[in-house]
Amino acid sequence: MPLTAIAFYLLAIVTVVSGFMVITARNPVHSVLYLILCFFSGAGLFVLLGAEFLAMLLVVVYVGAVAVLFLFVVMMLDVDFARLREGYAQYLPLGLVVAAVLLGEMVTVSSAVANRGAAAANATPQAADLHVSNTQSIGQVLYTDYIYFFQAAGIVLLIAMIGAIVLTLRHKPSVRRQKIHEQVGRRRRDAVEVTKVGVGEGISE
To answer: Greater confidence, 123 or 23?
Structure first.
């Protein structure tokens, strides 16, 4: 068995197992760590396919930003996860139905893609431009045909970032915060009191 096949099967097994552990781990922090492992394994699969730019995006964007953001949010939120798992058995049948529907959709799409791939294999293949790199080819398609979808994805990520900031922002009555608008708008007579003190009327020790 060639080394490429061994690497593919190893990365594929790690990706599937880590993806399964994301949804079965009891500790939410462990789930995020398994998600990071799944992203790294998926990046390795992209490298084997010759899509090194997508592998770099998967590591830099998802592992370096999204997964780390998930980890910080999970660690900073004071959520009682034991209480959330109390109704697990109650919603299990509905979850199984949803999983079956998703599995049927994935099988249908996979069969359609396989049939289309078999039909495309019989057609005349088109030679790729060898003078254009993989990154340049993706950039040309991304910023011409899919520019609106690219901008929409950026807006979605921005909304997710704002939501994470709002969720982690806590106001405690015991913590004194700086109120800049009150400091700037404060007048002299509100902060300084001038009192005339006569002789012998001062504070004595």
So the answer is: 23
